[in-house]
Write a structure and sequence with these properties.
Layout: H1 5-21, E1 30-32, E2 39-41, H2 42-58, E3 63-66, E4 80-88, H3 90-95, E5 101-108, E6 111-119, E7 124-129, E8 134-136, E9 139-140, E10 153-155, E11 174-176, H4 181-190, E12 195-203, H5 204-216, E13 220-222, E14 237-244, H6 246-252
Parallel strand pairs: 3-4, 10-11, 10-12
Antiparallel strand pairs: 1-2, 4-5, 5-6, 6-7, 7-8, 8-9, 12-14, 13-14
Length: about 260
């Protein structure tokens, strides 16, 4: 069944894209999640429902982990699980930006095996399957192979450039930013940027799909300590993320002061 999973994810992503774009971002009903967990809109829930109906009907034996579904520990009894972020970048969606994404992944025994990151308003569909490479709109992609230099482009929030996060001073890099974590990771896989950093505890649904896209595009992704990523954890978070081409990842990761999530 795993070999047929990527076409299923691509079809589901396109269905979800049609659902999401049927809402006008800034007029979609919005409210804040409890515990300062960020905004959610009626579009997030509608996309979640569409993905659940499509994917869980097709693979009823897979577990389910989604940002917009109350977590159920029964997923831990499944070898294979869907890991979903219906709209990654909800604030961008509300603001009418085009840089929000639908992120869909499947993990088997803790490793992502199929993944899609889809930006409907940019007509960009990134996809990857384990051992089969990564693609953008059906065309193969690869990470950059540039050596670390001041011209290295790194996607990171401004606070990461605080000296307190680095063992020997802020690295000489060119910082950029995109609001969606899934899109940031896909952009590394595409080779448009050299690396991506986040030191905050990161939800699995923000990272899972992009992680496979990067590795299948020839890149490297770890947590902030350099440890491999594993998914479908009892508490579904990762200890930050460092991702990029091999040369830039190996230059940046050892310079970070690491923290336990």
């Amino acid at each position: 069944m795993l070999a047929a999973d990527l076409p299923l994810l691509i079809d589901a992503a396109r269905i979800a894209g049609r659902v999401a774009t049927s809402f006008a971002g800034d007029t979609a009903t919005r409210w804040d999640k409890p515990g300062d967990a960020g905004p959610v809109t009626e579009a997030d829930l509608a996309v979640n429902d569409a993905l659940s109906a499509t994917l869980r009907t097709a693979r009823p034996d897979y577990g389910w982990l989604s940002e917009e579904t109350e977590d159920d520990a029964t997923r831990l009894s499944h070898d294979t699980v869907f890991i979903i972020d219906p709209i990654d970048g909800t604030r961008s969606f509300v603001e009418g930006s085009r840089t929000w994404a639908i992120s869909i992944a499947i993990a088997h025994l803790g490793q992502v095996t199929a993944a899609v990151v889809y930006l409907p308003l940019r007509n960009r569909l990134y996809a990857a399957a384990h051992g089969a490479g990564a693609a953008l709109n059906g065309q193969p992609i690869a990470v950059s192979n540039a050596a670390m230099s001041p011209a290295s482009t790194v996607l990171a929030a401004r606070p990461i450039m605080d000296p307190k996060h680095w063992t020997d001073g802020i690295p000489d890099i060119t910082r950029h930013y995109r609001p969606s974590l899934a899109y940031r990771l896909a952009l590394i896989g595409e080779g448009r940027f050299d690396a991506m950093l986040t030191l905050r505890p990161s939800w699995e649904w923000d990272i899972a799909a992009g992680a496979l896209i990067i590795t299948e595009a020839g890149g490297t992704i770890t947590d902030q300590t350099g440890a491999p990523l594993r998914f479908n954890n009892p508490h579904p978070t990762l200890n930050g993320v460092v991702a990029g081409s091999g040369p830039v990842h190996s230059a940046l990761a050892p310079r970070l002061k690491t923290y336990c999530a």
